[in-house]
Amino acid sequence: MTEEEPRLSARETIERLAPALSTGMRVRAVTALLAGLSGAVFVVALWSSEPGPLPGRTHLAFTLLTVFCLAWAGYGGWLLRNRVPLFAAEQVIAAWIALAASTSVTTLMTIVAVQRGTGPGLVLATGALFVAAASVLAVRAHARRAALLRRVRDLTGRKEEA
């Protein structure tokens, strides 16, 4: 900055930040969108091509998998549509999708293991790892969002909408 350039206020500095998603974020958004859509198409195709009637828990499993795939596709589409930094809200949403998916899949797989009589130990151990990882991501995402919102509040002197 030179002597003749006026000094920008905190608000002007924030407003001048790049309003577009970074290349990395766009790649992640497109990946989430395509993976979610292709996963949903695959699961629905597999589900609809079953030759005979399926048990209720199998319908529930196919439904959950389809919902999670569509949730990731929706998340990717939402990121691409907004195209602006969201103070880490996208990280919080992704962490909650991952936590909901890992918890419900672990629960469903535990129920299946108990009904089959194979014992839920291995399923619970594996599921606990995924739930723990998703929980850590959720806590980190919330902490990052809170830090960014505090920073915005400090720079602008006003409370930012959540």
From TrEMBL:
Keyword Transmembrane helix belongs to the record: yes
Assigned keywords, A-Z: Membrane, Transmembrane, Transmembrane helix
Protein origin, superkingdom: Bacteria
Protein name: Transmembrane transport protein
Species of origin: Streptosporangium longisporum
Parts of the chain that traverse the membrane: 29-48, 60-80, 92-115, 121-143
